[in-house]
Design brief:
- The structure is a homodimer of 282-residue chains.
- Helix content of chain A is 29%, strand content 27%.
- Chain A is of the alpha+beta class and 282 residues long.
- Chain A has two domains: 2-114, Aminotransferase class 4, branched-chain amino acid transferase, N-terminal domain (D-amino Acid Aminotransferase, Chain A, domain 1, 2-Layer Sandwich); 119-279, D-amino Acid Aminotransferase, subunit A, domain 2 (D-amino Acid Aminotransferase, Chain A, domain 2).
- In chain A, strands 7, 8, 9, 10, 11, 12, 13 and 14 form an eight-stranded mixed β-sheet that branches.
- Chains A and B meet through helix 1, strand 5, strand 6 and helix 6 of A and helix 1, strand 5, strand 6 and helix 6 of B.
């Protein structure tokens, strides 16, 4: 199921064509997006998602997003959703039409059924391969024009990484930097549990600050866990009591296999943290 | 002026919406393109462009492009063009609609008036800044999932580099690798003249093989010049008799200023090579 609404409040047929061929979002991947999880009619982490949308817009020199309009259109899609109790809400914001710059950005929200593959990984965990992302951890600060850490529509490489994982018999990817440090998944953040402490790498190394990662950390802190945002090495991916990918639609997904090697069972840790995450919203 | 035709031969209004919001070209920058220069009704370097489209498709695991259909639609746009004697012809090929994978790729050709800024740079030359691209020259071979050297629709970084150049008072960019070696422009190849020899870096370092660069080399060879495809260092950008950017719409554009420093006048060398390039088509 899909529900589409443009930012001006126009509810539209998602099966009809709405975008001109010279929209810069299409022609140049020049735009940004967010994916929000909606559960039981409530958008999760909407404030952090809208903050990150504004941050991405600033990094791409796009006009500042109209926060209230995005809140309204989010509500509108939710109110028109009649599918599963959980769904993915995409917010898309492009630089607009190349031949009509005065028309301003193209902006819409779309509700989507969550992919079966994602739901299966939530339940059963996922096999992951590490792939070299070819960047060093200092690059994001040194070269802001590379848009590292912006949630850009130019996700071709993220999609290619997923295909490479499939070729290697895995379902997802963890990118590593040239110095071996852990970055992120193509559409997720990496979380490691060790004892009663959670770890995730800092956004300053050129990754997206995770909305779901932050929610999982909040949930764990309520249980008395410690949380640390600090650089992780490739060795940390093995030396832990649980390795997870966090994203809006994945929630907290357990990694059961890394580069073909089965990891120790982290189901119990996963169950505890998954409950802690859900309890944030109850 | 714009002329739009889809790959199936449907001539279409370029001001109408044709693309669904869940086209993966829009949602993920997941697709490829080419820009062909058409002059006096003839597409320049169409064979190399279509070969490169097929190469990009292979790198992205897209279905092999229908070569004859692309040739037909190219002819169709040209036959319907009534604007300037030179125009840009874009070929765009996306992974298609996410919710309807069986529908296959989205594919169209569009004729476009060449931007005034590009025409001015052709005549007067351009100021360029060097920007760190953050990759090392071995990365493309080591990590094919990064799609280095594919002409992908995920051009967000290339567009951001152009904005960074504008902030620094320049009109274009030359990307350098982490070891200081010369890569390419965001939408062009780098050519250096030294005596009667032309130099350009090899595509194996993760850049696009240039169709116009190759044509300039052919033209220069006819005049008895030597040509070399070999790695260039940042120092080579200054130690030469002419520094140029080559692309379909730019043709051979002279760089007159590099990182704020005016370069020695290379107008005479430029004029000779620009003529050599045009003579390829006469």
């Amino acid at each position: 199921m899909r529900v589409l609404a443009f930012l001006d409040g126009t509810l539209s047929d998602p099966d009809a064509p709405w975008i001109r061929v010279d929209d810069l979002g299409l022609m140049r991947g020049d735009g940004i997006f967010e994916t929000v999880l909606v559960a039981d009619g409530k958008p999760r982490e909407l404030r952090p998602h809208l903050d990150r949308l504004a941050r991405s817009a600033s990094m791409l020199d796009l006009p500042e997003p109209d926060d209230e309009a995005w809140q309204r259109v989010t509500r509108q899609v939710i109110d028109n959703w009649t599918g599963d109790r959980e769904f993915a809400l995409k917010l898309v914001y492009t630089r607009g039409i190349e031949s009509a710059p005065d028309a301003g950005p193209t902006a819409f929200a779309m509700g989507l059924t969550i992919d079966e593959k994602i739901l299966r990984a939530r339940r059963d965990g996922v096999a992951v391969v590490t792939l070299d992302r070819g960047i060093d951890p200092g690059l994001a600060e040194r070269a802001p024009w590379l848009l590292l850490g912006a949630k850009s529509l130019s996700y071709g490489v993220n999609m290619a990484a997923g295909r490479e994982a499939a070729r290697r018999g895995a379902g997802d990817v963890i990118f590593t930097a040239t110095d071996g440090s852990v970055l992120e998944g193509p559409t997720s953040n990496v979380i490691i549990a060790r004892g009663h402490t959670l770890y995730t790498p800092p956004a300053t190394i050129g990754i997206l600050p995770g909305t779901t990662q932050a929610a999982v950390f909040r949930g764990a802190e309520r249980l008395g866990w410690s949380t640390r945002i600090e650089p992780l090495s490739a060795a940390d991916l093995r030396d832990n009591d649980g390795l997870f990918l966090a994203s809006s639609v994945r929630k907290l997904t357990r990694v059961h296999t890394l580069d073909g090697e089965q990891l120790p069972d982290s189901s119990a840790v996963h169950a505890e943290l998954a409950k802690a995450y859900e309890d944030v919203y109850s």
